[in-house]
Each structure stands twice: as structure tokens, then as C-alpha cells.
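Q: I'm building a small set of examples for a reading group on sequence design. Run inverse folding on the following structure and report the sequence directly after it, with nothing in between.
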């Protein structure tokens, strides 16, 4: 998995290895309608080149100007410090923060890159890592984290999470699955693909997702799907999809979806109820036809609708029925 923040750290590491001074900036608190959430990360090189974002533009421009002008004397040798933007209404307007938004940031000179190298190695192995920065000393420590962890800041220490907090298991390795996988990875999901059909699995693009060996129902059962796991069946083969859905609907997964038309879904639910004794409550958890109804036709469009619905459920956003036009997947 390569999240945006991990790419920021990768860029920062490359810049330090090339001899540049680098400042890391993390959003720690927001008020009002600040455009980036707590935990958002920015790296600024000594010549003003940036990676990542903390506001979407105007605050970055000010940070770059200050760093290039040498205003942050800590850079390259000092300790982390706090920065605030938008404290007054006038400043919020000046820095383009909507509705009087306010940002508090922690800026730190990147001196020791050993922790960056270790963090990138551990997250490349699909580990979720908690990074803790002590502001008084600049010392960074790394520890394993659980998917229920959150960013924490108490004024003296800052703990942020890196790695695959959310998981998505796709049953099927076809063209649609690969499109879904690419989009989900951009949203910081660890994407797993299970497809025992070698002719399909062989087409899985390198780096798109991690293939899991085995039959789908066994994989779902063994992964211990929890409230940070989404499972989507995309093979159109009842022998593969139904068994996976049987386990998924009885698991703690926050989202379970299956490809197919409304007629196919009704038939599927009847089959699952009659042959596998799933309850009405369990069957009601199945999203099908999968995805938001946006009139999707192509694999990429259908992938957009699927990923959007997963995000909607993940964020517990409730829309009126008329605001969610639906996908015509058959």
C-alpha cells in the first residue's frame, strides 16, 4: 500500500539522501472549515519544493516563503515547534481558510532518517505503524498499532498512524477488480484479491493489490474480517461469490457487496437464505446491486460507484434516497 502520506515520507527521504534540508509539517488541530484533516502531512525542501498538503495551497505558499527566507532557524538542526494559521478572521481570509477555519501545525526538521527508512519498510510489509514525536527533544519512536488507533496530540507528544488502517478484500481478479483496487489504494486501503481461477489471477497487475491464496470462503474466515474491513464479490460465479458472502455477512466487516443486477441479487438472497440459513438481518447487510447508482457502464465507472459507496458507508454518511442515483450494473 502506498498512501499519500507514505509518498510524502518517501520524497522527504530521497531529498535528505540527496543532501537537502527538509521540514515535515503535520496538521494537529483544526477549527471551522479547515480543508485538511488532523494528521495531514507536508514535506518542504530547502529550495521550496513540496510534497503533500496541509491546507490546499495558501498556507503552503506561506510556509515555503518562510523556509526559503530562513525564518525557521530550527530547520536542519533544531527542535520541532508549533505554528498556527487563521487565529483571527483576517488571517483566515488571508490564508484562504474557509469560514474562519484555523490550523495548528507541528513543524519539525527531518534530521535522522533512520525512522523514515524503518517506517517505510514496515508499512511495505502491510504493517500499521504508530509514529510518536516528542516535541521537546525531537525524538521519534515507532510502534505497532491497531486499526482502531487514532492520531493523538497532547501538546507535548504527537502520535500519527501510517499504513493500511482499512482493508478491502475483492473476490475475483478481473478487469473490474483491478480498477477498484487502484482507486481503493489511493484512499489508503490495503487491497487483497482472492481468485482461485489461475487464468484470472495471472492477469493481476503487479503492485495493484496483494493476492491471497485459497478458496474465497476460507480466506474470508481466516482474515477475521472486522469493522475496518470491506468485502466485495465480483466474479459473477455463485460457486465463488456465495460462499465468500456467506462468511462475510456473518463477519464484522463494515461493508459487504456483490456484483449483479437487482434480479440476480434477489435470487442470490433467496439462495443464501434457503441453503445457508442466513437471517434477514444478515442478508440486509448485503449491498447489491453493488455501488452508488450513477449510471455507470464501463469498468472504471463501475469501480468509481463501488469505491464511493464503500467510502460512504465507512464515513457513515446518510443521504436522502434522491441524492444517491444508482448504478445499473447487470
Amino acid at each position: 500500500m502506498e498512501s499519500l502520506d507514505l509518498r510524502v515520507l518517501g520524497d522527504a527521504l530521497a531529498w535528505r539522501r540527496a543532501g537537502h534540508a527538509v521540514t515535515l509539517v503535520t496538521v494537529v488541530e483544526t477549527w471551522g472549515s479547515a480543508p485538511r484533516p488532523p494528521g495531514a502531512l507536508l514535506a518542504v525542501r530547502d529550495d521550496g519544493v513540496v510534497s503533500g498538503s496541509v491546507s490546499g495551497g495558501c498556507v503552503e505558499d506561506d510556509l515555503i516563503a518562510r523556509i526559503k527566507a530562513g525564518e525557521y532557524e530550527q530547520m536542519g538542526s533544531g527542535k520541532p515547534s508549533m505554528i498556527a494559521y487563521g487565529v483571527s478572521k483576517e488571517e483566515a481570509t488571508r490564508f484562504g481558510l474557509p469560514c474562519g477555519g484555523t490550523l495548528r501545525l507541528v513543524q519539525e526538521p527531518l534530521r535522522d532518517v533512520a525512522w523514515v527508512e524503518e517506517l517505510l519498510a514496515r508499512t511495505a510489509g502491510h504493517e500499521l505503524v504508530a509514529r510518536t514525536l516528542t516535541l521537546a527533544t525531537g525524538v521519534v519512536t515507532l510502534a505497532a498499532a491497531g486499526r482502531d488507533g487514532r492520531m493523538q496530540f497532547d501538546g507535548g507528544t504527537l502520535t500519527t498512524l501510517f499504513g493500511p488502517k482499512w482493508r478491502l478484500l475483492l473476490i475475483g481478479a478481473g478487469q473490474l477488480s483491478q480498477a477498484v483496487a487502484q482507486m481503493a489504494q489511493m484512499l489508503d486501503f490495503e487491497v487483497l484479491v482472492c481468485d482461485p481461477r489461475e487464468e484470472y489471477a495471472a492477469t493481476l497487475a503487479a503492485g495493484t493489490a496483494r493476492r491471497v491464496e485459497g478458496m474465497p470462503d476460507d480466506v474470508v474466515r481466516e482474515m477475521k474480517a472486522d469493522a475496518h474491513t470491506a468485502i466485495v464479490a465480483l466474479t459473477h460465479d455463485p460457486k465463488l461469490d456465495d460462499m465468500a458472502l456467506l462468511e462475510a455477512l456473518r463477519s464484522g466487516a463494515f461493508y459487504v457487496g456483490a456484483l449483479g443486477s437487482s434480479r440476480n441479487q434477489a435470487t442470490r438472497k433467496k439462495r443464501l437464505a434457503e441453503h445457508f440459513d442466513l437471517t434477514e438481518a444478515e442478508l440486509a447487510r448485503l449491498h447489491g446491486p453493488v455501488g452508488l447508482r450513477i449510471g455507470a457502464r464501463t469498468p472504471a465507472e463501475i469501480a468509481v460507484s463501488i469505491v464511493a459507496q464503500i467510502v460512504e458507508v465507512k464515513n457513515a454518511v446518510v443521504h436522502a434516497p434522491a441524492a444517491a442515483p444508482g448504478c445499473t450494473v447487470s
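The first strand starts at residue 22 and ends at 31.
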